[in-house]
Design a protein that fits this description.
Helix content is 55%, strand content 7%. With 330 residues, the protein is mainly alpha-helical. It is globular, with a radius of gyration of 21 Å. The protein binds adenosine-5'-tetraphosphate. The site of adenosine-5'-tetraphosphate (AQP) has 18 residues, from α1. Catalyzes the attachment of tryptophan to tRNA(Trp).
Length: 330
């Protein structure tokens, strides 16, 4: 079975619709046919300041959401990144292989650092994609299910794997991004030119917020001139984004939805999408609450996941250390 790995940050507590449709939905589908490793990447979360209590809680909330959305811990290894020390260890190795200029070309760093004052931009935010490369390479990962925004980081990962292999002999599998075109980028409801992102809460739909609030956000989504419900990313990016979300949540094809809404306005589409989302998210929220009701059990699931992850990660790290020339402990 081909190996997949992906991670999600616990920074916001709730995932947003972009995280779910762009990434987590594929995680759930892939676990059927792949050897899957999924992690809550708390090491990545501290690239911006976190309150310790909130971070700890948000890691559980993130794991609970993954379970509630369909990750099956019997099939997938579900774990917290900091429970597997090999991530930080291989991360250091990868940092030593990365060029300064190469890291500086990462557009996500440019975007994220631009939103903060220079004194607040930690070096960790800069080296974040390098740690991400280690996350992936530790598992000899074949496919990495992510949203479009991660494509550049995946390219860096591939470059680092190839560089290491060339210098020290074949050690890592060179992974591929697994990006589902239709939902690769979910856009901000208030600014359909930008990706939906937790940094811009106004145009984001959160899985754990009151669905009434989500429905309201959907009703007030920025749409376009005209009134016809047609998928056209250039002329109608706002409406197209709503159709993408609608189609993904219902499994109904976009042309079918267009036909359904022919002669009706944007208002109907938005109102119905609010209902579709509410129907989807209500049972998810109930399951999240149930998992969070029993944190000891949740922690046990995560401990088992970390154990499975370490079995693989420790072998890869040992091999990499040996190749590099580190003296093996007696
Ligand atoms: N808008 C999106 N459309 C499709 N996929 C998306 N992802 C994020 N936003 C979208 C995918 O979600 C996965 C987990 O993301 P993350 O934990 O790395 O979070 P992030 O990218 O930091 O999330 P945000 O909201 O995009 O945060 P900021 O504002 O910090 O940039 C990834 O696979 C990602 O591609």
């Amino acid at each position: 079975r081909p190996r997949v790995l992906s991670g999600i940050q616990p920074t916001a507590g709730s995932f947003h619709l972009g995280n779910y449709l762009g990434a987590v939905r594929q995680w759930v589908a892939l676990q059927e046919s792949h050897d899957a490793f999924y992690c809550v990447v708390d090491l990545h979360a501290i690239t911006v300041e976190q309150d310790p209590k909130t971070l700890r809680q948000n890691s559980r909330v993130s794991a609970a959401q993954l379970l509630a959305l369909g990750i099956d811990p019997e099939r997938s290894a579900l774990f917290v990144q900091s429970h597997v020390p090999e991530h930080a260890q291989l991360g250091w190795v990868m940092q030593c292989l990365t060029g300064f200029g190469e890291a500086g070309r990462m557009t996500q760093f440019k975007d994220k650092s631009a939103r903060q004052t220079a004194d607040h931009v930690g070096v960790g935010l800069f080296t974040y994609p390098i740690l991400q490369a280690a996350d992936i390479l530790l598992y000899q990962t074949q496919f990495v299910p992510v949203g479009e925004d991660q494509r550049q980081h995946l390219e860096l990962t591939r470059d680092l794997a190839q560089r290491f292999n060339k210098r020290y002999g074949k050690t890592f599998r060179v992974p591929e991004a697994y990006i589902v075109k239709d939902t690769a980028k979910i856009y901000d409801l208030q600014d359909p030119a930008a990706k939906m992102s937790k940094s811009v809460p106004a145009g984001m739909v959160e899985l754990l917020e009151d669905p009434k609030r989500s429905a309201k956000k959907i009703r007030s989504a920025v749409t376009d001139a005209g009134r016809e419900v047609v998928f056209d990313v250039v002329e109608k990016p706002g409406v197209s984004n709503l159709l993408t979300i609608y189609s993904a949540l219902t499994g109904r094809a976009v042309p079918e939805l267009e036909a359904d809404y022919a002669g009706r306005g944007y208002g109907d589409l938005k109102k119905d999408l609010g209902e579709v989302f509410t129907e989807f998210v209500t049972p998810v929220q109930a399951r999240v609450a149930a998992y969070l009701d029993d944190p000891a059990e949740l922690d046990k699931v995560l401990a088992r996941g970390a154990e499975r992850a370490r079995e693989v990660a420790s072998v890869t790290l040992a091999r990499a250390y040996e190749r590099i020339g580190f003296l093996a402990p007696a």
